[in-house]
Write a structure and sequence with these properties.
5-stranded antiparallel sheet; single chain; 3 helices; 26% helix; alpha+beta
Length: 164
């Protein structure tokens, strides 16, 4: 029998992967915020800002892609519970200092499990969509620093990432 780590709730007694039973947990409001960046050259950023990308509205498409990704997280992350999300915000802020885009997602649910995965997936897919729509201008863009910024609610309480 494989040893079971105390905090790894996705492992059964024999070390097998399993979906966590959350039925005994109280349904509470849970919020997660994630962030990431798409670093690109000034010409690529200008293309995004002017709306000149051959594939269309980069910011609008990336925002919608991020929202859809959050809603379908359970389809790609093994053992992840499907959730009835109550709010998904994906904001994409152009940053001339980077230069590039800062992508931030807020996901909210009233439920028995957190939404960190959903927020991280929203950011990841929004960044990938941005890359895809601008790659004709610049293939060397970098998707960077995708991370959880904060989470609120649930048994473990609130958590905030350390300032950079």
């Amino acid at each position: 029998m494989a040893p079971r780590a105390k905090n790894l709730t996705h492992l059964g007694r024999s070390g097998e992967a399993r979906m966590v039973d959350v039925s005994a947990k109280a349904a509470t409001e849970r919020i997660a915020v994630a962030e990431g960046r798409v670093a690109m050259g000034r010409a690529a950023l200008d293309t995004v800002l002017k709306g000149d990308a051959k594939k269309g509205d980069v910011l609008g498409a990336a925002r919608i892609a991020g929202i859809l990704a959050a809603k379908r997280t359970h389809e790609l992350i093994p053992l992840c519970h499907p959730l009835a999300l109550s709010k998904i915000e994906v904001d994409i802020i152009p940053d001339r200092k980077l230069p590039g885009l800062v992508v931030r997602a807020l996901v909210k649910v009233t439920g028995r499990t957190g939404v960190e995965r959903e927020a991280l997936r929203a950011v990841s897919v929004a960044c990938l969509t941005s890359y895809d729509m601008v790659k004709a201008v610049e293939r060397g863009m970098r998707i960077e620093n995708i991370r959880l910024i904060e989470k609120r609610g649930g048994k473990s309480g609130d958590w905030h990432a350390a300032e950079d």
